[in-house]
Amino acid sequence: MKVYHVSKKNLIPIKEPYKFLNGDVYVVETDTEMWIWVGSKSYVDDKTVGAWMARILEQKNQNLKIKTILESEEPAKFTEIIDFEVVEGDTPGFLKHFEKQIQKDMRLLQLREDDKGDVDIIDLPIGYQYFKSDDAFLLDAQLDIYIWIGKDSQIKEKYEAGRISRKLEVERKFAPLVYVIEEENEPEGFRDMVFKLGIKDGVIELRTTVSKKEKEGKKWWQFWK
């Protein structure tokens, strides 16, 4: 049996005695099953990372069955294979402490169903002010994908967001970390993260424009006016 503590985007092996923080997520791997234990005070990003990590491990061993369990709702089979103590606390998650990383080609897509039942895909500047309750949105940050589900969004909009994320995963030939965020269950720090991504995207766009204009023999202040 192997036991892992989910820390940001890593699975950290831990040994006995097992102490599970109630604000974190743990992965317990046996020969036949993989259990994702979710603490009662864990954030949505912790849960997502745990599921993502389990999927990565499952790809290496496709015979494993993945099961997700919540704190205080552990089945007897789980408590029989591992003896652990739940303690108060958590570790910094991805959304709680935004990691600064250089991203390129970041995009914010709005998925909106029209009167004919078709879903329009609208490219927007990255900014939280564009999020609307009646639509679904996909924020593509290359290594990470955020699907934001408005409380009044339509089923087709949600489906299209998921379809695009799967397509991006295939195109990139690696498994990006996909966060599915419900508007009414938005994790702490999400708005601040979108704000920072928007600033970074604007800076990258400005640098690209400046570089292009400089190659044309123009100074940045000549086109900035």
Alpha carbon gap, first and last residue: 64 Å
In CATH, the topology of the largest domain is named Severin
CATH class of the largest domain: Alpha Beta
What is the SS-derived class? alpha/beta
Biggest sheet, spatial arrangement of strands: 2-1-4-5-6
Rg for CA atoms = 21 Å
- Number of separate domains: 2
Report the uncertain regions: 94-103, 202-214, 218-225
Element-level helix/strand string: EEEEEHEHEEEEEHEHH
The CATH architecture classification of the largest domain is 3-Layer(aba) Sandwich
Give the amount of beta strand, in percent: 25-35%
- Please, what is the average pLDDT? 78
Strand runs, count? 12
Shape: elongated
Q: CATH superfamily name of the largest domain? A: Severin
Explain what you see:
This protein has 225 residues and is an alpha/beta fold. It folds into 2 domains: 86 residues, Severin; 98 residues, 3-Layer(aba) Sandwich (Severin). The longest helix is centred in the C-terminal third of the chain and has 26 residues. It is elongated and about 55 Å long.
Produce the secondary structure layout.
Layout: E1 2-7, E2 10-13, E3 18-21, E4 25-29, E5 33-38, H1 44-60, E6 65-70, H2 76-81, E7 84-87, E8 107-113, E9 119-124, E10 136-140, E11 144-149, H3 155-172, E12 177-182, H4 190-215, H5 220-224
Parallel strand pairs: 3-7, 5-6, 11-12
Antiparallel strand pairs: 1-2, 1-4, 4-5, 8-9, 8-10, 10-11
What's this, in brief?
The chain is of the alpha/beta class. It is built from five helices and twelve strands. The chain has a five-stranded mixed β-sheet, with helices on one face. It has a five-stranded mixed β-sheet with strand order 9-8-10-11-12. It has a two-stranded parallel ribbon with strand order 3-7.
